[in-house]
Specification:
Layout lengths: L1 H20 L14 H18 L3 H20 L6 H4 L2 H16 L6 H4 L7
Helix pairs in contact: 1-2, 2-3, 3-5
Length: 121
């Protein structure tokens, strides 16, 4: 289930990046190039792809956990103290989910496992 959690959460996470960088799915959330939101989208897109593949899982998850903590405190917390009101629920969940992947590793079906960097696949 660890591998499934990694893959499914990374696919959903990637959608935030494709929305900000590629404008898909279409919304008002497309970001201006080199804005903070756009840079976050780059992390979401590239980091999401790496996590789906299970490639460099632990260091990528560590960086993405920090990105999500940063996103929460910069973009969400100033709106309201309560996550349900400031829209930061997902940022908090991703932050701790990625922190879990740092400790737990990629699980099954990972490139890291196939390359022998983690336990048996």
């Amino acid at each position: 289930m660890l591998g499934v959690l990694r893959i499914v959460s990374a696919l959903i996470f990637m959608a935030h990046g494709t929305q900000k960088i590629l404008g898909f799915p279409p919304s008002e959330r497309t970001s201006q190039m080199f804005s903070l939101s756009w840079i976050a989208g780059v992390f979401e897109l590239i980091g999401g792809v790496l996590l789906v593949l299970g490639l460099f899982t632990r260091p990528v998850a560590f960086v993405l956990s920090g990105v999500m903590a940063f996103a929460y405190w910069i973009a969400h917390a100033p709106r309201s103290f309560y996550p349900v009101l400031n829209g930061g629920d997902a940022a908090i969940l991703y932050c701790f989910l990625f922190l879990y992947l740092v400790v737990a590793g990629p699980g099954r079906w990972s490139v890291d496992g196939m390359l022998g960097r983690e336990g048996k696949v």
